[in-house]
Amino acid sequence: MKFGVYQAELKKAIASVFPAVASGRNILPILSGVRFTVVDNKTVMAQASNLEVSITYAMSVFGLNPECPDIVVPAKLLSDLVNQLPDDAITWDSTETT
Predict the structure, then answer these.
(1) Which of 12, 39, 74, 95 would suit a FRET pair with 57, their CA atoms being 20 to 30 Å apart?
(2) Which segments in the chain show pLDDT lower than 50?
(3) How many Å apart are CA 91 and CA 4, to the nearest integer?
(4) Cα–Cα distance between 37 and 51 in angstroms, integer?
(5) Residue 15: count of CB within 10 angstroms of its CB
(6) pLDDT at site 75
(7) Which pLDDT score is estimated for 36?
(8) Are the CB atoms for 97 and 47 separated by under 8 Å?
(9) Reading across the β-sheet that carries 89-93, which strands appear in turn?
(10) Is 84 exposed, middle or buried (0-12, 13-18, 19+ CB in 10 A)?
């Protein structure tokens, strides 16, 4: 999945879904992440769930190349990283691994 997004938009998406990210010691690792899913050529959904609450946020993106239409990223790591980035356009580029 490759796309461009502004830091403010990505930060808003993470902040919106973060309350649904599961935390604690005995959780499934997938529940501590944010899932990004391609919706169309201008929209990527950010989603988080703790099995009780699920939150979804639609992000406006540009330059979308949906090679891998879904990815899950650890929420805390992503939040910390995005908060340190300058308020500018970000290129998100991930490759599929097995």
Answers:
(1) 95
(2) none
(3) 4
(4) 18
(5) 14
(6) 95
(7) 95
(8) no
(9) 62-65, 2-6, 89-93
(10) exposed
pLDDT of residue 97: 63
pLDDT of 96 reads 66
d(CA 61, CA 44): 7
Instruction: Say what the alpha-carbon torsion angle 16, 51, 38, 1 is, to the nearest 10 degrees.
Output: 90
The per-residue DSSP string of 10-63 comes to HHHHHHHHGGGS--SSSS-GGGGEEEEEEEETTEEEEEEE-SS-EEEEEEE-EE
What CA–CA distance (Å, rounded) separates 8 from 98? 31
Q: Strand 43-49 relative to strand 54-60: parallel, antiparallel, unpaired?
A: antiparallel
